[in-house]
Every structure is written in C-alpha cells, then in structure tokens.
Amino acid sequence: MNYAIIRNILGKLMVLIAGLMVFPLIVSIIYQEGIRHYLAFIIPIILLLLFGVLFNIKKPKNTNIVAREGLIIAGVSWLLLSLFGCIPFMISGEIPNFFDAFFEIVSGFTTTGASVVTDVTALSHSVLFWRSFSHWIGGMGVLVFILAIIPESKDGSSMHILRAESPGPQVGKLVSKMRVTSRILYLIYMILTIIQFLFLWLGPDEQMTAFNSIIYTLGTAGTGGFSMDPQSLEYYLPYSQYVIAIFMFIFGVNFSLYYLILIGNIKEVFRNEELKWYFAIVVIAVTLLCINTFKIYDTFEETFRHALFQVTSIISTTGYSSTGYSTYEVVDGLAKVGGWPVFSQVLIFIIMFFGACAGSTAGGLKITRINILVKSMILKIKNIINPRKVEVLSIDKRPADNKTVEVIQNFFVLYIMIFLICSLVISLDGNDFVTNISASLSCISNVGPGLNAVGPYGSYSVFSSFSKFILSLEMIAGRLELFPLLVLFSPKTWARHN
Questions:
Q1: Contacts 24+ apart (CB under 8 A), 46-51
Q2: How far from chain centre, in Å, is Cα 295?
Q3: DSSP E strands: which ranges in 268-344?
Q4: Phi, psi at residue 354, to the nearest 5°?
Q5: pTM (two decimals)
Q6: In angstroms, rounded to a whole number, what is the distance separating the alpha carbons of residues 373 and 442?
Q7: Where are the domains of the chain?
C-alpha cells in the first residue's frame, strides 16, 4: 500500500477545496451577510489549508498508483470532502445539526439534490451558492480536476483514480495523456455551463436574475437539482423550463461525444448506441406521460412541457421539477397523496433506475449498462431456444468482452442489494413504503426527489439522523459506482502487503 501517494493526493484535494470555498465567501461579502457567515467559510478554509500543507510536507518517493489505491483515494476523498464541506452550514447556523448538514453537502457533492431544508427561502445567498456550487464541483469529479493540474505519473497509473471516480462501466482516455483528457473534459464542462447561464440570464424570464441563473445553471450542469424556490421551477416562464430541460438532456450525454464533435468525427457520434437508447427512452417516456396526463393541463403545450421537463430531470438525475407530479400532505393525522396518475408516477420511478449516459455528470445505472443487460438477457433466451447457435454480444458493432458483461451483471446485483437493504433500514423510522423505497432509490441513483413525503416539494427531514447518515453513504456509494466506498470497509484493503 502506497500510503505516501494517498496522503499526497488527499492533501492536494484539501488545498483545492479551500480555494473553491473562496467563491461562496465572496458571495457572502457581496451580500454583506455578517461576520458569522464570513467565518462559516474562513474557518474551514484555514483548516483545509493547514491539513493540506501538512499532508504535502513530505513528498512521496513512489508516485505509482495501483487499482486498490485509486479506489481508496476516491472513497476517502469524498468522505473528507463532505466532512469539511458541511462545516459552513453548521457555523452559519442555517443547518446546525451535523447529520443534517452532512446529508445536505453529501447530496450536493454527489449531485443528488435531496434536501433536509424545509424552508429554502430562509437560506442566505452564500449557503444557497455553496449548495449549488457543490453540484458543479461533484458533477465532473473533484479528483478529475486534480488530475488536470498535477503532473502525470510516469507509468500512467493515475488512470486508476479517473476510473474510480468517473461514472460508467468503462472509462478511457480521450487522448494519449490522461492529464490532457481531464483538461478537455473540464473545458467542455465549463463551456456548456457558460452557454446555459447566458441563455437563462439573457432570456425573457425576469425571475432569472444573474444570481438565480447561476444557481440553476450550476444545478443543471452538475445534474444536481438544489433549488432556491420552494416549488422549484414551477413558477418560472416556459422559456426557462425549456432551456433547463434541454440542458439537463445535454449534460446527461457522454462528454466524450462532445469531444468527437469538436474534432469533426460526427459519424462516430451518430453510431453511438448509448446515445440512441438515451434519446429513445426520453421520447418514449415523454409520449407515455403526455398520453397519461393530458387531462390535467389546459393545453397540449403545457402537457408536453411538463412531461419533457420531468423526464429529462429524472433520467439525467437532476431532480428539478416544473409541476407537482407527486404531492403529499398530512391532514388531521391522515396522509393525502396526489399529483400525476399512478401510471405516470410508476414510470418516473422506473426512470430513476436508468440514469443517463456513462461519462456524463448524471447518476443511476447508466444507459450503457441497461443496454448490455438487456442484450445479455436476449442472448440468453436465444441460447436456451437454440443451444447450438453461437451469437456474440456487441456494442457499437464491436464485440463486448465477457469480463465487461460479468462486471456489469455483478454491479447490477450489488446495486439492487444496497438499494433494498437501505430501504429496509430506513423503514425503521415508520414512514410509508413508497416514501422509503423511492428515497433509497433516489439516493443511490443520485436523483434527489422521490415520491410521497420526499416528492418534488417534500423534504428528507422526515427521516431520523441515523437514516440520514445511511442515505448519505448510499449517495456517495451511488456517485462513486459502489466499489470505492465499499472497499474502505474491507480489512484487506488496508493491508500493507500488495
């Protein structure tokens, strides 16, 4: 175990986060929020810089990283990120409870968007900004940013860090150097973020002030979904809803396809199976929702807009809402649920599993895994019918190796197991079945809103501190694709021998 390189990377991470915390501090100063809010960011900045410098005093002699160390760096990094990231919430007094603050920032960094805040309008500008900025930081991955600025290891072993943090069953370099790959990814990410901000800010919606446009752009780019309005985007103009819906879809696409567009390889983009599946699922889901909800709204345009918005929001795991598709209130001790018809709510629930494309900022299982699982199932049925006929599973007209298929199948089983176990554990709080199971699925898929009490206008405050902690770990596990967090709990992981 190369503890020196792990310590070195963690030190760089802490210095980076200290630098990024300067931005919400500037927001707090601009809006003159007072000394307590200034200290809410100054104190963690000092702590992060102190530990970051201490961790980097002694340089590692060996900079090579093996797969196990890449997983450990990813898992520990995200836990440290969350522990330091929740400090501003507690010092400012806006989310004083540790478990609530930890849940909120984990939800931010993992781009989940689930919130324990019951009155978001009471939050200060700096806290609102830090919540949404955490989406943007976690969307592409903080370690990917570090890899873009630190020297690359001579043997290219830093690739193990990229694989551990990046979403998708297969992660590769866009160009020969991994450091350049990280820079290309972040450059595309930044350009798309700026374009969306300009569309919102310069649009006809007067509610989209510069600050509001920044908040919703950061949430969309990171596919996070923290809102600054109690009803999310319901009362914004259709223009803003369409812009955000389109960009939620855009940020759910594999970023390597945008690189192919930049270098002029358009044919390869249109041959991509995952993109075809992603587009097809959105079209089918929007069509079904339009058919099932057309009587709810006054016009077809309104029906289509809400269907499009909610499908792109859920499949990209952003979690914004333009309408109350699932409502829940307790009147005289009795729970009343409402919103869209049951068929539409079940469809939304199913889409939570899917997620968008691998290599995007979205969570979920990822379309490419769904594609391979479906094809694998079809081939198995064909093999049972005709055992002598040999067929090969292919993706983008290229054979998929058996190891990749096996890893995806194991990932799916583990995904379902964690989802069900967490659903069972949080049910000890006594909330209804739909609330529990949708909350667990929403957290592991990094979606944010679920159904019933945790619906689009609901809050995760209904859960106990213990359940919030379990859901926080589930969010981190989902964002890191399970294994980086799980390996931290294995004694063999920390053994000094290789």
A1: 47/84, 47/87, 48/14, 48/15, 48/17, 48/18, 48/21, 48/84, 49/14, 49/15, 49/18, 51/11, 51/14
A2: 33
A3: 326-331, 334-339
A4: -65, -55
A5: 0.90
A6: 21
A7: 1-166+463-498
Q: Which amino acid is at 51?
A: F
Q: Which structure tokens are listed for 20?
A: 């990024």
Burial 378-405 (b: 16+ CB within 10 A, else e): eeeeeeeeeeeeeeebebeeeebeeeeb
d(CA 370, CA 365): 7
Cβ neighbours of 464 (radius 10 Å) = 14
Helix axes 238-251, 178-201, angle to 10 degrees: 170
C-alpha distance from residue 216 to each of 232, 241, 368 (Å): 10, 11, 28
User: CA 353 → CA 160, 166, 209, distances in Å?
Assistant: 26, 18, 34
Cβ atoms 44, 84 nearer than 8 A: yes
**DSSP strands (E only) in 283-419:** 326-331, 334-339, 394-395, 398-399
**Number of CB atoms found within 10 A of residue 233's CB:** 22
Backbone torsion region of residue 46, taken as left when φ is above 0, otherwise alpha when ψ lies between -120 and 50, otherwise beta: alpha
Q: Each residue's pLDDT tens digit in the chain (498 positions)?
A: 667 778 888 888 899 899 999 999 999 999 999 999 999 999 999 999 999 999 888 777 766 666 667 777 878 888 898 999 999 999 999 999 999 999 999 999 999 999 999 899 999 999 999 999 999 988 877 656 555 555 545 544 445 444 544 555 554 445 445 667 777 888 899 999 999 999 999 999 999 999 999 999 999 999 998 999 988 999 999 999 999 999 999 999 988 889 888 888 888 888 889 999 999 999 999 999 999 999 899 899 999 999 999 999 999 999 999 998 888 776 666 667 778 999 999 999 999 989 898 888 888 888 988 988 898 888 888 888 888 777 777 777 777 777 888 888 888 999 999 999 999 999 999 999 999 999 999 999 999 899 999 998 889 999 999 999 999 999 998 888 877 777 777 766 666 554
Determine the Cα angle at 395 with ends 392 and 401, to 5°. 55
125 three-state secondary structure = helix
The torsion defined by the Cα of 312, 314, 319 and 321, in degrees rounded to 10, comes to 60
User: How is the chain split among helix, strand and coil, in percent rounded to 5?
Assistant: 65, 5, 30
| Pick from 294, 304, 326: nearest CA to 242 | 304
Q: What number of other Cβ atoms are within 10 A of residue 422's Cβ?
A: 23
